[in-house]
Amino acid sequence: MIAIRPRLHVALHLAAGGALLLWAWALGHVPSLAVQWLPWQRPLTGLGLVLVAAAGLNRRQGVSRFSCRLCVAVLGLTGFLAAGEVGFRVAGYDFRHQARALAQTPPFYRKPTIPVGEVYFRRAGPLSWTGQVIRQQLRVLGYLDDPYRSEPEITVRYDRDGFRNEEPLPPWEVAVAGDSFVELGHLRFEELFTTRLAEELGRSVRNLGVSNTGPLSHLCYLKHFGVRPTLRDAVVVFYEGNDLQDLTAEYRALQYYQRTGKRPERTIRKQTSLLRAARELWCSAGTGSPTPLPTNAWVTTRHGEVPVTLTHRLDTTTRPTPESLEALAYFLSGFVAFASEQGARAWLVYMPAKVRVFQGRFAWHTPADEQDALPLSAALPAEIASACAAAGVRFHDLTPALRAETTEAGMLGYNGLYDTHLDEAGAAIVARELARRLAAPDQPTTR
Question: Which residues neighbour 311 within 8 Å (Cβ) at sequence distance 6 or greater?
Fold first, then answer.
């Protein structure tokens, strides 16, 4: 047997122990590694210290030979990982293939990325996409798509500004801004409530809806894309499920921009870490089968009990935060100012979540399902109406119309599973109700 020279023994142990200590340090200080591998920091630190300490032990050749082989293996593995980590980062290889995943995602479920205004974003345009919108999104997310197997394949088109309008655009008298409940990117153009509203009123209506946005974005859309000499009604649709939270986040971003001059960016950040990719692959092992769609309640319809996904529960103790109310007042004052400048009426239309419309017709599967749902203030419509009255904005709540018609007809009016939005029937109800309200004799608002 070849004896291990003392100097080689010491050098191997110090090098291997130092490499492990360096990796342990990196796991605690490099965010892309720490997010997945931080629990390994202590074991690596302990093993590294053991190898460094073993550099001074060279009494038995058998033990020394084994520990030196261990050190060589550690150096080889850490060297390989280091080379791979640096190489993939330099090459900019995206282990998540995010650009490809984004291309497979229907536009309706993508965040807007084109900067507009101070801190807001819109969709790219012109744009078109063909397919089964909800079913395709379920596939992208790894859910079972059977409930939407019969969903029609449609082509959704966006105008040059990234909104759901057919070009050329005629001079519009009504501009409707909002989030996904206005965009409704899973419905055909002729099924949108803005399209039906134009038919009901006999006026041109421009759709300014973009998912993943809040009221300050909607006001920005009106200012940049809703101005027209023919404009008579400026409408913002307020979805109670998340618009107050989105408004607060946009208000913070605006305040930060006003302090620093820095606006948010939305670009794909590639996941270039080999170690993070390995950990994500390890954690996802065995989860290749599609996940069943979450169902937590049953709604009684004319077809019997229908399973649904409810993301909210009505709560009598939840109230808007002071910051949210401040952001709401800021938005409403800006909305009134815009409408006044354009000689148009300012409307805030309240879009209820499923749980409010289904109230009295549904039952939770278990008490735990109810508690897991997000709390939604039972008094929120009254609170928003009060804020609108104080600001001088016309307010209209869609809840009574949706509840009455869907209860009488025994239908949902919303997509039942996974998706939170109106279906074709619900969009038709909204169109009729808005047409009735906008066509009615005007009532003065109060401040």
Answer: 241, 353, 354, 373, 374, 420
Asked whether residue 366 is domain-assigned, the answer is yes
Band of residue 193 on the pLDDT scale cut at 50, 70, 90: very high
Confidence label for 93 from pLDDT (cuts 50, 70 and 90): confident
Do 40 and 186 fall into the same domain? no
233-288 residue pLDDT tens: 999 999 999 999 999 999 999 999 999 999 998 877 778 888 777 777 776 665 56
**pTM to 2 decimals?**
0.81
174 and 73 assigned to the same domain: no
Residue 188: inside a domain, yes or no? Answer: yes
CATH number at residue 352: 3.40.50.1110
What CA–CA distance (Å, rounded) separates 107 from 133?
9
Q: In this predicted model, what pLDDT tens digit does every residue of 60-76 receive, in sequence order?
A: 656 677 888 888 998 99
Are 81 and 181 found together in one domain? no
**CA distance between the termini of the chain:** 96
Q: Pick from 31, 62, 91: which residue ends a domain? A: 91
The residue among 63, 91, 119 that closes a domain is 91
Q: What are phi and psi of 247, to 5 degrees?
A: -60, -45
In a domain, 112, yes or no: no
State both tokens at 37.
């591998």
- Provide the residue range defining the domain that includes 358: 170-439
From 118, 243, 116, 265, select the one nearest 182 (Cα to Cα).
243
Angle at 42 between CA 50 and CA 31, to 5 degrees: 130
Asked whether residue 371 is domain-assigned, the answer is: yes
Q: Provide the pLDDT for residue 2.
A: 52
The single residue listed with the structure tokens 């769609």 is 293
Is the per-residue pLDDT at 433 higher than 90?
yes
Total count of domains within the chain: 2
Asked if residue 11 lies in contact with residue 72, where contact means CB atoms within 8 angstroms, the answer is no
Q: Is the peptide bond before 168 cis (omega within 30 degrees of 0)?
A: yes
What is the sign of the dihedral through the CA atoms of 95, 99, 102 and 104? negative
- Which amino acid, one-letter code, is at 405? E
**Are 362 and 243 found together in one domain?**
yes
